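Lecture notes, continued. The same structure-token format from the folding unit now serves as the input rather than the output. Read the line below as a description of shape only.
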């Protein structure tokens, strides 16, 4: 297969890394160091959310790396508006709060609506505030998370749409393939970001994963991250363990065969590890 590039271009025109670091449940006391070490290791995408409570610490880790002479354009920082931050005025205030937490960065690269759960009116009002944040230069690109096809099509059909969502961040792994949703995103020019690509850590020691990992002389985590990349997702593996960072990013120099991909695929499985709201009304 042809090599997977380190960067792709989003529909907003901005470059975006093909693997990122998840930061959910990274303790506040560890976040700045993990993020800084991740950037030194070569990560260029940090995924956070107002829900996670460690936005300021992510900003601290990124700033430390920038202070060493690195370029702001080379790192992408994502955050997400939580359900309670939906609604036009509410979202406007929340966006300011998000930016205030990482003010050294100057802007947010990618802002997502965390879920569709608040219903059609709130979803579109929130998105209106997000679009205005792009116009105000607070945010570079906007997108959605946990959206099903009907939520995406609602947004694409909205007469107020000015900036298409660049990504849909959803849980996808070999045990939750969501092929129809992923295909629909791709057909609409929306990149799929894969959260919980390691099954929240629970699939790293799966027997098939372990067998393939041994054959390739890589770790189980690397096999799962590479599976995600070969499905054209942008995986967001999380680790709070500095010694695991390098391995989880060392996923560009080997590839899985079509046969190995087939062995890993579980198209009939349905094993979400977090929440499920792609089917919300
Ligand atoms: N938009 C949304 O609704 C959601 C978004 N997300 C995003 O996706 C990210 C990733 O998902 P997450 O649920 O955290 O789960 P992951 O699938 O990334 O798994 C993380 C777990 O795997 C462990 N792990 C990581 N690397 C290795 C390794 N090389 N060897 C052994 N164990 C390893 C981690 O342990 P340790 O940390 O102890 O090293 C942790 O327990 C989140 O952090 C968040 O940024 C996640 C859920 C929902
Ligand atoms: O990373 C996350 N873990 C979660 C668990 C429940 C709801 C949202 C999330 C996240 O965004």
């Amino acid at each position: 297969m042809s090599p997977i590039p380190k960067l792709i271009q989003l529909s907003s025109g901005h470059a975006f890394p093909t693997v990122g670091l998840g930061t959910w449940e990274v303790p506040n006391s560890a976040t700045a160091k993990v993020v800084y070490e991740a950037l030194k290791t070569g990560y260029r995408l940090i995924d956070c959310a107002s829900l996670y409570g460690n936005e300021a610490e992510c900003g601290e880790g990124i700033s430390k790396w920038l202070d060493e002479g690195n370029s702001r354009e080379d790192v992408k920082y994502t955050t997400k508006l939580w359900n309670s931050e939906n609604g036009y005025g509410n979202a406007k205030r929340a966006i300011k709060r998000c930016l205030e937490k990482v003010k050294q960065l100057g802007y947010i690269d990618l802002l997502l609506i965390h879920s569709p759960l608040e219903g059609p009116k709130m979803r579109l009002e929130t998105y209106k505030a997000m679009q205005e944040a792009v116009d105000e230069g607070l945010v570079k690109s906007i997108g959605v998370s946990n959206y099903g096809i009907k939520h995406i099509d609602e947004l694409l059909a909205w007469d107020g749409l000015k900036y298409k969502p660049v990504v849909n961040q959803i849980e996808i792994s070999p045990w939750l393939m969501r092929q129809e949703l992923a295909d629909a995103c791709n057909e609409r020019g929306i990149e799929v970001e894969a959260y919980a690509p390691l099954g929240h850590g629970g699939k790293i020691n799966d027997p098939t994963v372990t067998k393939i990992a041994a054959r390739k002389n890589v770790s189980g985590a690397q096999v799962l991250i590479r599976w995600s990349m070969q499905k054209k997702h942008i995986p967001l593996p999380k680790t709070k363990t500095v010694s695991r960072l390098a391995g989880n990013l060392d996923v560009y120099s080997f590839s899985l065969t079509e046969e190995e991909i087939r062995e890993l695929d579980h198209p009939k499985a349905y094993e979400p590890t977090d929440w499920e709201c792609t089917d919300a009304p």
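Point for the exam: The pocket of NDP (ligand 1) is lined by residues 22-24, 47, 114, 145-146, 169, 195-201, 204, 219, 221, 236-241, 244, 247-248, 274 (CB under 6 Å).
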